[in-house]
Amino acid sequence: MRILFFALSLMILGSACTKKAAFPMDREWMLSIMNGKKMSGDNAFNLKFDEASKGYSGKACNTYRGSYQMDKSKLTFGTAAATKMMCPNMAMETEYFTTLASVDGYKYSGTNLVLTAGGKDVLLYK
After folding, report:
1. CATH number at residue 63
2. Closest alpha carbon to 121 in 69, 108, 49
3. Is residue 9 part of a domain?
4. Domain residue limits at 98
5. Which residues have C-beta within 8 Å of that of residue 125, sequence separation ≥ 6?
6. What per-residue string of b and e applies to 37-65 under the rule 16 or more CB within 10 Å gives b?
7. Is residue 16 part of a domain?
8. pLDDT of 5-31, one tens digit each?
9. What Cα–Cα distance (Å) separates residue 83 from each residue in 30, 57, 90, 111?
């Protein structure tokens, strides 16, 4: 009986330890891939989270900010408010904001943050 109790205790403890780890929010995430396209140079967009205010911000061509909601592996972003400077990569910025608004989840492993939409990986940050 003791062995059975011990085995059950280990199983319960083990399942509690495999809980999905939340990604570290206290850093700047650099966009590496958007919708299958490698991002760099003028398209080196970033994203930061403010856990206390449930806000996000960053720099694409323009600086932007908004609010987010997170629950377990679900993550959604409110509409981004952005400055209105003209830039050579406006089409990429528009695609970025559209993609960010479509996000419904995330995956985090090591140093990579992947934002997903409809089960597909759409934004990869490092």
Report:
1. 2.40.128.270
2. 108
3. no
4. 22-125
5. 29, 30, 31, 32, 47, 112, 113, 114, 115
6. eebeeebebebebeeeeeebbbebbbebb
7. no
8. 334 343 444 434 444 567 888 899 999
9. 19, 12, 12, 29
Q: CA–CA separation, 126 vs 124, rounded Å?
A: 7
In a domain, 8, yes or no: no
85-120 tens-digit pLDDT: 988 879 999 999 999 999 999 999 889 999 999 999
Residue 64, pLDDT above cutoff 50: yes
Establish if 30 belongs to a structural domain. yes
Question: Euclidean distance between the first and final Cα of the chain, in Å?
Answer: 49
Looking at the 3D structure of the chain, how many domains does it have?
A: 1
Q: Which amino acid is at 15?
A: S
Three-class secondary structure of residue 88 per DSSP: coil
Q: What pTM value is reported for the model?
A: 0.80
The label of the residue with tokens 């608004």 reads 101
- Name the nearest CA neighbour of 115 among 79, 53, 70, 82: 70
